[in-house]
Amino acid sequence: MRLTNMILHNEILLIHADINQTDYIFTVKWKTPENKKGGEWELKSYLNNTNGKKDLTEEQIQAFLDQINPKWDWEEEQRQIKQVLDQD
Q1: Which of 45, 58, 67, 78 is most solvent-facing, going by the fewest CB within 10 Å?
Q2: Neighbours of 27 (CB within 10 A)
Q3: What domain of life is recorded for the organism (predicted)?
Q4: pLDDT by residue (tens digit) across 65-83?
């Protein structure tokens, strides 16, 4: 999977992705949880840019989302920040 041509407008991101030599266009929206820690991209729509169909499997869609979503541990990050601040 190769990601290209990303356009960000507020919390909406448009991404072209090459999956198995086929061009797809994805629209995702940033979703911040109520506790304001972290967040992730949520799929809003996609289509095969050649034929206009939605022909990906759930596994392919999940692989795309796994690739674009951040993988961080907010609790560990906060602990490290606190540790650094406490040293001053």
Answers
A1: 58
A2: 15
A3: Bacteria
A4: 999 998 877 778 778 888 8
Instruction: Give the amino acid at 45.
Output: S
End-to-end CA distance of the chain: give it in Å, rounded.
Answer: 45
Structural domain boundaries in the chain:
2-87
Q: What is the 3-state secondary structure (H, E, C) of the chain?
A: CEEEEEEEECCEEEEEEEECCEEEEEEEEEECCCCCCCCEEEEEEEEECCCCCCCCCHHHHHHHHHHHCCCCCHHHHHHHHHHHHHHC
Q: Which residues pair with 40 in a beta bridge?
A: 31
Largest CA distance in the chain: 59
Q: What is the identity of the amino acid at 64?
A: F
DSSP symbol at 34: T
